[in-house]
Amino acid sequence: MIGVAEIKQIIPHRYPILLLDRVIEVRPGESLVAHKAITCAEPCYQNTDDYAYPVSLLVESWAQAAVLLACWETPNPDVLAGKVELAAGIKNVDLLEPVFPGEVLEHHVQILRNVADAAIVAGSSFVGGRKVLEVGSFSVALRGVEVLMRPGGD
Predict the structure, then answer these.
(1) Which helix (H) or strand (E) holds 6?
(2) Are strands 104-115 and 31-37 parallel, antiparallel or unpaired?
């Protein structure tokens, strides 16, 4: 099991958008299981009385687990150097049930295919054994940071 400190050594996500708390199982190049505890202290709840976790953050949290798996053997915690992770596409996303504070998301991701500097990943998220999210495919590409820099390097 690894926690936030180790996750931050692999991917560049930081507060408030780091949406993973720990990895409980990993088979590099194959699969990963990660947890995210939902709390009512999260920024998304500051100005609302709707405590269903936002779908965009649920999908982002799952996608971070997918990126973590794709980058496990080639970590890059610095978004300004090396290769950065880019979401290239997502298909067949089904939100099955809402998630609320006090619940713990368990993200399951598996690599369907690795192609050069890209991976196609699929999986699901669970809360207490019930499936709350399913992702048919998510494509992540690793590209040199120079492709993202404006002319002049800033």
Answers:
(1) helix 4-7
(2) antiparallel
